Each structure stands twice: as C-alpha cells, then as structure tokens.
C-alpha cells in the first residue's frame, strides 16, 4: 500500500511544473537583458522593475491570494467528477467580474497619472542622475504594464482554483509557448530596434497580454460548461471614464516638460488624479 495518495502526487507534480515554468518566465527578462543589452540598460530596467512592481506586490497580490482562496471554496466539489453547483459558479463569475472591473478603473488611473508622476517620484527618491540615463522614461512605460500584471494575477488565480491536473499541464505548455514569443519579441525590441530597457518592458507587455487572452479563453470555456457566464459589458468602464482618463493623460503630458522634480509637481499630479477619481 502506498504511503501517498496518487491523485495528490499527480496534482503536486502538476503544480510543481507550473511553478517551475512561471519561475523561468519570471527570470526570463533578466536572462534576455543580460544577453542582449548593456550594463546601463540592465541597471535601468532593474530600477524600473523594482519600483514599478511595488504597486503590484502591495495592492494586487493580497487581492489575488484572497480571490484564489475564495474561488477554491466556492467552486470545490466534494464528489469526484461532479460539477460544482451552477449558482455557485455564477456567483464566482460575478465576483471575478467585479474584481476585473475594479482593476480596469485602477488601470485607467495608473495609465493616465503614472507616466507623468513616475519620473518626478524617481527624481525625488533616487536622484537626478537616473533621469539623465532614461530611467524615468522606462518607469513611465512600466506604468502601462502594471494593469496587465493585475489582470493576469486574478485570472490565473481563478484558473488555479478550478483547473484539473491535465488543464494545469496544458496551461504550462501554453506558457512555454508564450515564453518563446517573449524571447522573440525581446530580441526584436532589444537587438533589432535598439529600444533598450523600454523594449524589454514592451516584450513583457506582449507576453502578459497573450497569457491574459489564454486565461480568458479558459475561463469562458469553464463557465460555459458549468452553467455560468461572464458578461463583457459588466467589466468595461463607462465611455466617460475612458474620456476622463485620456484628458488626464493629455493634461499631464503637456505639463511634463515643465516638471522640475519638486514636491509641487507631485501635488499637481495628485490634483489631476483626484479629479480623475471623481469622474470615474
């Protein structure tokens, strides 16, 4: 008699493989930039990545972990092979839609205000020498990447809560394919186009977008098979919210050249951000 449960061993192996693939993807940007870029670009990207990911770690990661636990409790089945209750599936879909809608609104603020205020904050906290080598521009670009980190986190949290071992293997396989696409995009942006650290951010952007598309496809299929649905209209922002975000971005873009890296610049950005929040 075996000391270990075979289903648990299979599931553990699947989760291990998935974690290994995710680790490779996480370290993939480091390998790419070490291979294709200069030491200066490596330092700039490391600075932008560390500062930019602070928001994801502090704000989005707790939501991701909590939602993973919630989805697992709502959609677990005590009987092997039995589908979860359709009402619970729809409730989980509604929770997911609410989280995504919240993330979309946060993304509008991040994309509108972040590129303007990020270089100012970088000058204040890291010094002006980083601005002269282009770190501010890279950090501004990273602000467009943060919303994708958030969306990918919550969609993959849903998948990890409901996927079978075979589906986890399938996800790992697709993530490996996306990593090859990431490497190709990184080569083009870094070597061919010479975009430096900004090119690596855009390569990550493309890779994360592909992962979100696959996760969306999986979630839609899961809900369809189990009597649930996810309405796109319930997750999209109002046209007025998008327009307000564009106006805020334009206002800061026009003032960006006048910024001197003082606290007054942060206050200006804060005022624009406050008005934007009221209009969302």
TrEMBL record:
Q: Name one GO biological process term.
A: dolichol-linked oligosaccharide biosynthetic process
Q: Which family does it belong to?
A: Belongs to the RFT1 family.
Instruction: Please give the function described in this protein's UniProt entry.
Output: Intramembrane glycolipid transporter that operates in the biosynthetic pathway of dolichol-linked oligosaccharides, the glycan precursors employed in protein asparagine (N)-glycosylation. The sequential addition of sugars to dolichol pyrophosphate produces dolichol-linked oligosaccharides containing fourteen sugars, including two GlcNAcs, nine mannoses and three glucoses. Once assembled, the oligosaccharide is transferred from the lipid to nascent proteins by oligosaccharyltransferases.
To which pathway does this protein belong?
Answer: Protein modification; protein glycosylation
Which Pfam families does the protein's record reference?
Rft-1
Q: What is this protein called?
A: Man(5)GlcNAc(2)-PP-dolichol translocation protein RFT1
Which region is the signal sequence? none
Gene Ontology cellular-component terms for this entry are: endoplasmic reticulum membrane
């Amino acid at each position: 008699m075996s000391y270990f449960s075979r289903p648990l061993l299979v599931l553990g192996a699947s989760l291990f493989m998935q974690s290994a693939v995710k680790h490779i993807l996480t370290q993939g940007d480091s390998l790419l930039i070490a291979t294709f870029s200069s030491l200066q670009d490596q330092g700039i990207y490391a600075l932008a990545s560390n500062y930019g990911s602070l928001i994801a770690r502090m704000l989005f990661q707790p939501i991701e972990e909590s939602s993973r636990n919630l989805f697992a409790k709502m959609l677990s089945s005590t009987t092997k092979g039995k589908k979860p209750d359709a009402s619970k599936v729809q409730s989980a879909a509604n929770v997911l839609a609410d989280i995504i809608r919240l993330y979309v609104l946060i993304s509008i603020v991040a994309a509108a205000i972040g590129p303007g205020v990020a270089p100012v904050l970088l000058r204040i906290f890291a010094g002006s020498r980083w601005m002269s080598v282009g770190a501010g521009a890279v950090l501004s670009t990273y602000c467009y990447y943060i919303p994708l980190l958030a969306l990918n986190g919550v969609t993959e949290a849903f998948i990890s809560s409901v996927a079978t071992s075979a589906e986890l293997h399938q996800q790992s396989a697709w993530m490996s394919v996306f990593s090859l696409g990431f490497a190709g995009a990184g080569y083009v942006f870094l070597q061919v186009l010479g975009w430096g650290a900004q090119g690596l951010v855009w390569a990550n952007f493309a890779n994360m977008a592909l992962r979100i598309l696959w996760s969306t496809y999986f979630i839609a299929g899961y809900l369809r098979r189990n009597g649930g649905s996810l309405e796109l209209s319930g997750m999209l922002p109002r046209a007025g919210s998008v327009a307000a975000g564009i106006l805020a971005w334009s206002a800061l873009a026009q003032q960006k050249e006048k910024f001197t890296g003082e606290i007054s610049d942060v206050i200006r950005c804060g005022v624009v951000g406050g008005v934007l929040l009221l209009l969302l």
